[in-house]
Amino acid sequence: MKTFRCGDVVPGCTREFTAPDRQEILAQVAEHAREDHHVEVDAPLVQAVEANLRDA
Ligand SMILES: [Zn+2]
C-alpha cells in the first residue's frame, strides 16, 4: 500500500490518501485537488505527489 499526505504539498491540508498503488493515489488526489483546492492535476503536481508517496 501507498500513502500520501496532501499537507506535504499543500501546507495546512490534513487530507491523507491510502491506496494499493500510485495510480489509485493519483486518481484520489486528482478528485480532492479539483474539489477542495480548485486545481487541475498537471505534471508538476503529479511529480510532487510521487516525490511524497510513502510505503504503508
Ligand atoms: Zn489537500
From TrEMBL:
A Pfam family annotated for this UniProt entry: DUF1059
Top-rank lineage group of the source organism: Bacteria
InterPro entries in the record: DUF1059
Protein name: Putative small metal-binding protein
